[in-house]
Amino acid sequence: MPEQIGCARRAIDLRAQDDSVEAWLEDDFHHFGIVMRHDGEKVISVEGEAARFPRDTCPGALDILQEVVGMRLSQRSTAIGKITNMRMHCTHLYDLLGLAIAHAACGRGHRRYDAIVPDRQPIDGALPEDRLGGTTQPQLFCDGHSVMAWLVRGDQITGPGKYTGISMGRGFREWTETLDIDEAEAAHVLRRATLIALGRLIDLQALGPEGMKGTEGACHSFQPEVIKNSGRMLASSKDYSECPESLLLHLDR
What we know:
Blueprint: E1 7-16, E2 20-27, E3 31-38, E4 43-52, H1 91-106, E5 110-118, E6 135-136, E7 139-142, E8 145-149, E9 151-153, E10 156-159, E11 166-167, H2 172-176, H3 181-196, H4 224-227
Antiparallel strand pairs: 1-2, 1-5, 2-3, 3-4, 5-7, 6-9, 7-8, 9-10, 10-11
């Protein structure tokens, strides 16, 4: 196997107080936080912060989080999708809010996820530049313990065991509905980290309009009425391959 170039890392931290959950996320391209308040049964307020983001229109998605106010708490982090349209949101704020709601519903105190996604390697016979469809072995840790690890090729999970043959594309959420609460949540966290890691293989700063095909309507910044006024944030990406301790460093201060 060719030498590994590096890896994508993503950290998610969830901390509960009596009537709120503070949640943070950071990876190579994003750094977001929210505070979700509840009354024990439903969401009563949401506040968000965009600390680092890839496009200058991303912070505009903070206001859309208010659509979830009034939602009943649910132990499944994907239940938020029954209340609001994910594609109108910032994908990462949406995920983070869903995790915060589930965290409160489950009555947890503190939970930390750390995902590691080695840079993809080309499959046999492929050109080096074809790594987007190559292989990787993402792994997820929860509170320091390994809870999930996959073999991945392209957008398919190729192992181990029951994960073999699962697509990370269409049908993934429906498949996770067959899993228990914690396993389903871990699967969604690891899937998102694995997909986001593909950004490390693309020169995002040099990506022109022709390279954006297929992203239309994917999230808030790529909605037709938003993308026409959206620009890439220069030098917004970081590399945590060798310094995982720097992720969400502000929480330890």
